[in-house]
Amino acid sequence: MAAGYLEILRARHAARLLAGTLVGRLPNATAAIAIVLFVRAEGGTYSLAGALAAVYGVANAVGQPVLGRLVDLHGQPRVQLPAALASALAMACFAVTDTDPLALAYVCVAAAGLFTPPLEGGLRALWPGVLGREEQVHTAYAMDAVAQEVMFAAGPLLVTLCVSLWSAGAALVVVNVLGVLGALSVVVSPPSRAWRSAPREAHWLGALRSPGLLALLGAFLFVGMALGSITVASVPYADEHGGDAVYGWIMAAIGLGALVGGTVYGARRWTGEPARRLQVLVALLAVCYLPLMLMPGAVAMVLLTVVAGLFLAPVIACAFVLVDRHAPRGTVTEAFSWIVTTFTVGASVGTGLAGPVVEAGGAVWGYAVPGAAGGVSLLVLLATGRVLAAPGGPRVVAACSENDPNRAVEPRFSSGDRA
């Protein structure tokens, strides 16, 4: 299992790009907890902290596809690094000025979210040129999904450590300085500097003119809802079974399950149609959410949550293959950024939906939301199966091995983006 991952990490520039992207994304991964801790440390209310965190999330969801399109048009260094600097400066301004005046705090937080660089989409655009072989890129997508789980677990720990050693304001600054350094490490690398998007057809919809991508976005909205609803449904359960410590273990268990599932998934070379495989993976994801409604004791519940997370990273990794397949020529970074945005919006919707459900029916009905959302995601995939299974949209055909009529077990990469 480890051999496939080690082979990728030994590829020239691969480890640097992966590490730089993860460090560069720390501000995004920790923004919610860092903002909440800072506002509370300065005497603000939970409502204000939640509102500022929500503004950051909405601005980030808007900014990712916009900046992704700019990356496709102008290259990675000319967009990623200035965006990272602008985001860090906005968050530093927020840390210095506090929440007074309040309007400035909202502007700073919104700017920080809006200018968060699309490093995640940028890395996935670089993998084909760095690795070359299609099966390696598929494994890299899975490794990427697994690494995200590690980053989202380690990031909050870093924030709380900075808060305990210095202050909540210092944590905001430190995390964003690290984010700029991570982005800098990526954009000065030879693959990032050499990467150019394929020629694109001028169209105001950009990547969204692809029916296959729209189908994926519709499905991923509900996958995000499932994950977001668990974070809320687990609060009343934890209150009845041990408090904050149990809640922490449940949240960590989701990440652990995704890490294990993604690691196993990426270690195997998969044959067959990826659209069909995604349907099976989403079905398994939805089914594994249902046992959470049993709400057993704390230890058993943590184990069930590990199982519930097993298929999350494989779903994401398989979807990446289909995004690359269906992204219109010259829009690959924007297309990956739309997936990030849709997942984020879905998680926010799931969080908002689970609250009233929990208040009306308790934690058991709160845990019904992720299973239902996973089921709807599966229905979207089944309804759009033919669209997802069809080849991507019309593209400029170049004489190269990508267009060999004797294709491998899965369609070759269609993004046309190479270093």
Describe the structure.
This protein is mostly helical. It contains 19 helices and no strands. The protein has helices at residues 2-10, 14-24, 26-41, 46-74, 77-97, 102-114, 119-131, 134-165, 168-187, 190-194, 211-240, 244-266, 274-289, 298-309, 312-326, 332-361, 363-366, 368-383, 385-389. α2 runs antiparallel to α9, α13 packs antiparallel against α14 and α13 runs antiparallel to α18 (368-383).
Main features:
76% helix, disordered C terminus, single chain, 0% strand, mainly alpha, 19 helices, 419 residues
**Helix content range:** over 70%
Question: What is the string of SSEs from the N terminus onward?
Answer: HHHHHHHHHHHHHHHHHHH
Coarse morphology: globular
What is the end-to-end distance? Answer: 28 Å
